[in-house]
Specification:
CATH architecture of the largest domain: Beta Barrel
CATH topology of the largest domain: Thrombin, subunit H
CATH class of the largest domain: Mainly Beta
Helix content: 10-25%
Structural class: alpha+beta
Radius of gyration: 26 Å
Distance between the termini: 48 Å
Number of helices: 10
Largest sheet: 7 strands, antiparallel
Oligomer: single chain
């Protein structure tokens, strides 16, 4: 699901840091990984154009012209049939063969982007974006209050009546022609107040690249909002309004105490203010579901409460009326098949746990950005079955390396297989990424690496992924030649 837009901006509907490579790569027996460019979204406009006239009537052929055409010789049909058979056989041999590849290729090593547009230096190479300077702002006051519940048997009406006053609409405006005085609405979403200081939590994909942001209050009045910061990785943004009086401030609950089966309520503005304050009800389907949304894998609360376009940035509430999640209603890809095709998770609702969202919000307010520790590589999981086929150890295959990143500086090479991190075996791709994310920028990690029948010990210092460029070492990717010819 995507936010409702009048016009799509380059990053409005999809801020992918990664997508799967095309099926052609997999059918040619190449492993599938996630990339920095969103090939799926780049293909979509072409597909729409391709089928735009699919149902248009064909032009009628003039009967006189048809009568004047020469009939083809029977030999023409025979030759055409033979050629079609040969071409079909070649196609089947080349493209329909079952690929041999390592196992699960969902996630990447570097799913993050800088917030500023990519710049190029004098040599034409993409320049590294430095982290912005810290701001002098203090941490926000989390002074929300839980609603008063009179009916314990059905608390939903009491919760909705009070909490809805703190859920607002978020509007993004941008100029199409470059004229700043004539901007048009480009995105619609939701948000909610989490501090009496006027701070609003919403999703980054709603407000990114917008030249002007406003919020629509519960009484349908509109006021300007200041963007305090956003983090595309976690899809969290913080806005601030000048006048928050008489508004309800939501109280943060504890997402860690959620259990599968708990009742939850989602409040947001699907399709804009026409359906403002829409409330849906459901249960918690999973408390820590790792899913791939727009190419980036994060951990979410999964719910069957309907989360519709426009509801992104809304509140997911427990039965006490406390907010436990920041809802996200973007295009959701649950997984990729062995050919790199996205497996849709349509109809499922996801929300960022409130503790993660608020921690990110505090960093955005205090220092203006969020630091993400990383190595600057992309990896592919070499599972037991693939390891046996290639006669190599299990671990993470280094598929690409960012030039001058921590991995490059530590001496990692393409086709290396990372088998241990700080003495712990690397068994799955998600475990490897989670291990790196659990460390801070500047911390050191010891890697045991298998390289062409030899085992190496490398120590690297984790860097901030926001500071890393996109140029790759050797300009390419691993070829899975694990041994010298």
């Amino acid at each position: 699901m995507e936010e409702q837009n009048n016009m799509q901006t380059p990053e409005n509907l999809c801020d992918h840091a990664r997508t799967a490579e095309t099926a052609d790569a997999a059918q040619a027996a190449e492993p599938v990984v996630t990339e920095t460019a969103c090939q799926a979204c780049e293909q979509a406009p072409q597909d729409n154009a391709r089928y735009a006239n699919y149902y248009e009537p064909q032009h009628a052929v003039n009967s006189e012209e048809q009568a004047g055409r020469k009939r083809r010789s029977p030999w023409g049909y025979i030759i055409t049939g033979v050629l079609s058979f040969v071409v079909g056989a070649l196609f089947a041999c080349l493209f329909l063969k079952e690929p041999a590849m390592p196992g699960d290729f969902i996630l990447q090593g570097n799913p993050f982007e800088t917030e500023a547009p990519a710049q190029k230096d004098n040599s034409g190479k993409q320049a590294v974006q430095p982290a912005p300077p810290a701001t002098p702002r203090p941490a926000p006051k989390l002074d929300g209050v839980a609603p008063k519940i009179d009916d314990g048997t059905n608390p939903i009406p009491d919760i909705v009546q009070q909490v809805s006053r703190g859920v607002i609409g978020v509007n993004g405006y941008a100029s199409v022609s470059g004229d700043a005085e004539h901007m048009k609405p480009m995105s619609l979403g939701s948000g909610f107040l989490f501090s009496t200081e006027g701070y609003i939590l919403t999703c980054a994909h709603i407000v990114q690249d917008m030249q002007k942001i406003t919020v629509t209050m519960p009484d349908d009045t509109e006021q300007d909002a200041e963007l305090m910061g956003l983090d595309r990785t976690l899809d969290v943004a913080v806005l601030k309004i000048a006048d928050a009086k008489d508004m309800y401030v939501l109280k943060a609950g504890d997402a860690q105490t959620l259990r599968v089966g708990d009742f939850v309520i989602a409040i947001g503005d699907p399709t804009g203010r026409e359906l403002a304050g829409t409330t849906t009800f459901g249960i918690v389907s999973a408390t820590s579901r790792v899913v791939n949304i727009d190419g980036t894998a994060n951990t979410y609360i999964q719910t069957d409460a309907a989360v519709n376009p426009g509801s992104s940035g809304g509140a997911l509430l427990n039965m006490k009326g406390e907010v436990v999640g920041l809802t996200s209603a973007k295009t959701v890809t649950a997984d990729y098949d062995q050919y790199g095709n996205a497996i849709s998770a349509e109809g499922l609702g996801f929300a960022t746990p409130i503790d993660v969202a608020l921690q990110t919000a505090e960093e955005l307010i205090v220092q203006g950005y969020v630091r993400h520790a990383g190595i600057g590589i992309s990896v592919i999981e070499m599972d037991a079955l693939s390891a046996e086929e290639y006669d190599v150890p299990t671990g993470m295959v280094v598929y690409s390396i960012t030039k001058d990143g921590p991995g490059d500086k530590a001496g990692l090479k393409l086709n290396d297989i990372i088998v241990e991190c700080d003495g712990e075996a690397v068994t799955t791709q998600q475990d490897f990424v989670d291990y790196v994310k659990s460390h801070g920028v500047g911390e050191q990690v010891r890697l045991k690496v298998w390289r062409k029948e030899k085992t190496l010990e490398l120590t690297l210092t984790l860097g901030d992924l926001n500071d890393m460029g996109s140029e790759l070492v050797d300009g390419g990717y691993a070829d899975f030649a694990f041994r010298d010819e």
